[in-house]
Write a structure and sequence with these properties.
- The chain is mainly alpha-helical and 414 residues long.
- The chain has a single domain, classed as Glycosyltransferase, CATH 1.50.10.
- The two termini are 36 Å apart.
């Protein structure tokens, strides 16, 4: 790793690096504009094209609304009509007009009628960002999404989100997921800003305390991903399907990085509002980052971060996913902002070096979403380039304060 000698050489305060991040973010946004379809946003292939059979899906649409809202707030042209397209889809064909909530595809044409917390967290995040962007219909969508989260998914007794339900809100799944609760935490941070309500930060703290301070702390500070309905870990979950894109077997170093960043946002947000911020938020963020680097980075004979580990912290699924590197760089930036400690600068630069050399696709645009151990493009887990959200946020977070969520922070910078 590069041996820096002065913290004032930080890339976080470097005007050329800030400009490089801005240009990368703008290129990512321009690439993603091709994802629009009549009923929302669809997934793009690795060339940035929509396959002939491409159809909208709700997670992609919500993430695009969120991302294009951030871009519009920044002043990037061409994004406002795309936000409005996505809002119309979320208020129309993607919504269950009979029972409330959202399907995973228009009118559940994919056959999946279950209502998932993961998906609903992104709908609320999208609506909150569109509110900050000043788009018509966003406030109504946000009110409905918040109502569904509170009425259906939030469990006051458990201090966490329930996982999924049947279409009519029966058949609560006897499973609790760290992934959906992680993205719930992200959404709650945004809701605290947009709704100006402290309770969302209290709920975020309860989730973090359970998932990280209780369970991850007992698992080498790598998040336990899967639990039963009583929050007991399920160590064999998906052992026969270890490369699942949302519920993989074992531990996921990328989520340790993501949680580390979220804990620091939560700490800063609570302090800004005059709320208590327990010391373990910073300490656990440090530990999560350290464990993810130790067990995930360059551990299998090749450079990069492996997707998953077993319970002995040995690599299982060795592909390198783009979102993992995006979160690693963002976590390093957050810890550097919080502590001004030199090692996080070194990690921050090292992660961006890897992204620049291996992830950024200078031939076809955007980032490769998946690489093999040889750091060549592969599509075993994530075909194509459907995700703007992770990479784009990685270009924004190092330029913004920790204390408020992305949309609100960008608006204040104008």
């Amino acid at each position: 790793m590069t041996d820096l000698t002065r913290t004032n050489e930080s890339w976080l305060t470097s005007a050329p690096h800030q400009q490089w991040l801005h240009e990368q973010g703008r290129a990512l946004v321009d690439f993603a504009k091709a994802a629009r379809v009549p009923l929302g946003f669809a997934q793009l292939d690795r060339f940035g094209q929509r396959p002939d059979d491409a159809t909208a899906d709700t997670v992609t649409t919500a993430r695009m609304v969120h991302s294009f809202s951030l871009a519009h707030i920044q002043g990037l042209p061409g994004c406002a009509p795309l936000i409005d397209l996505g809002l119309a889809a979320l208020a129309g064909p993607l919504r269950d007009a009979e029972h409330g909530g959202w399907f995973s595809s228009p009118a559940a044409q994919d056959g999946n009628t279950r209502k998932a917390a993961y998906l609903h967290a992104f709908v609320a995040l999208a609506a909150s960002s569109a509110v900050v962007a000043g788009r018509q219909g966003a406030a109504e969508l946000l009110a409905e999404a918040v109502g569904v989260l509170e009425e259906r998914f939030w469990s006051e007794a458990e201090g966490a989100l329930l996982e999924s339900f049947a279409r009519d809100w029966s058949d609560c799944e006897a499973y609790r997921g760290a992934n959906s609760n992680m993205h719930g935490t992200e959404t709650f941070l945004a809701l605290a800003d947009v709704l100006d309500e402290d309770l969302w930060l209290d709920r975020a703290l309860r989730i973090a305390e359970r998932v990280i301070h209780q369970h991850a702390a007992q698992s080498d500070y790598l998040p336990v991903e899967h639990f039963d309905a009583h929050w007991q870990p399920l160590p064999d979950y998906n052992r026969d399907n270890p490369a699942d894109g949302f519920r993989p077997f074992g531990k996921t170093p990328g989520h340790a990085f993501e949680w580390a960043r979220l804990l620091l946002h939560l700490e800063a947000a609570r302090k800004q509002r005059g709320l208590s911020a327990p010391g373990w938020l910073l300490e656990d963020a440090r530990q999560l980052f350290s464990s993810a680097c130790l067990h995930g980075w360059n551990v299998d004979g090749g450079s990069g971060i492996v997707y998953t580990l077993d319970w002995n912290n040995q690599p299982v699924v060795r592909e390198r996913l783009h979102w993992t590197l995006a979160e690693a760089s963002a976590a390093a930036a957050a810890l550097l902002q919080r502590t001004d400690e030199h090692p996080y600068e070194v990690w921050y630069q090292q992660f961006w070096d890897y992204i620049d050399l291996h992830m950024i696709d200078r031939q076809h645009g955007s980032w490769h979403h998946e690489l093999g151990i040889d750091n060549l493009p592969s599509e075993n887990i994530w075909p194509g380039k459907p995700d703007l959200y992770h990479a784009y946020q990685a270009t924004l977070l190092p330029r913004l304060p920790l204390a408020i969520s992305l949309a609100s922070a960008l608006k204040l910078r104008r």
